[in-house]
């Protein structure tokens, strides 16, 4: 029988959070969205504000929060390198203090708690594809460290709260995900390439473009979040969530040019420090425990994302 749950989504006005809030509301649950709007945007959730089962709280998770809920999805944290490197101390605080506060909340209320961890915990990986048992190759004092080490420490906290306080935890290591509601200027590769292609600007390949990533469409990922939350309490993760089909960044650029029928040319720029050379999830655990695997191929997902960014560009042209 259906049981309506009260669900907290931190970072709910961001890219992934806004899709998650929408999906949970469509399943008839009550959703409390908490966001400080650092990288999130009210436009992402504007259509939800009239829903009586939806509540928005402007709040920074590095401060304590007292609400009564059955489940918590902890997504609050800037995710793109330019955003998380803008104020690296605040990034680590968001991951670490944010995790402590949300775990404290879960401890007091008995709520199940999901953590949006990341493939970045593997750093520049030597083991390929990445399996959850791999400990990673992370620089503790580099440009990416505030994000990578913050997320690693959050994982430690999740597992120690489980050991000490018997919390019901679900730790997901999310791999590169894309789709509508991505921030157009967040510097991530999919948003950059599509925005550049649609405006016939040069496509900026960092390094030689031979580094690889594996891109998951957002709808597939959100389905996995909910399946994971619904697993038995013994299933804690960490579990990799992502699409195991791997592409070079150059292949991605060529696909975007083809799908947008753009006249953009490729240009080569310096590769940022510590940029991982390869990344692909091993999703055997997700298949086994969640009975999940992605269903949306890159081309299909890119078409929907291109449509979204085109409408953003058209809207801003109408305004100017
Ligand atoms: P996003 O930047 O669009 O969303 C993050 C949201 O968190 C934003 O709405 C932002 O305003 C909010 N936020 C940031 N700091 C906060 C704070 N201190 N208090 C309250 N809210 C705060 O990023 P996203 O892509 O939606 O990522 C969501 C989560 O998933 C992040 O934790 C990220 O690390 C993780 N993740 C995402 C990806 C991906 O490919 N998108 C990959 C791995 C992990
Ligand atoms: N906390 C919170 N909401 C709650 C319960 C706790 O934000 O509903 C915060 C609390 O302020 C504390 C943190 O979560 O800083 C960790 O809580 P815990 O109970 O583990 O630690 P303690 O309060 O004993 O330091
Ligand atoms: N990248 C690129 N051009 C861009 C933006 C990114 O070549 O305009 C590269 C980047 O160097 C990295 C890959 O694309 O190798 C993915 O970058 P993104 O910032 O999207 O994610 P992450 O590095 O965190 O996986």
Automatic annotation (TrEMBL):
Its main location: cytoplasm. Keywords: Cytoplasm, Decarboxylase, Lyase, NAD. Pfam families: Epimerase. One of its GO terms (cellular component) is cytoplasm. Residues 7-242 form the NAD-dependent epimerase/dehydratase domain. PANTHER family: UDP-GLUCURONIC ACID DECARBOXYLASE 1, UDP-GLUCURONIC ACID DECARBOXYLASE-RELATED. This is NAD-dependent dehydratase. It comes from Pseudoalteromonas ulvae.
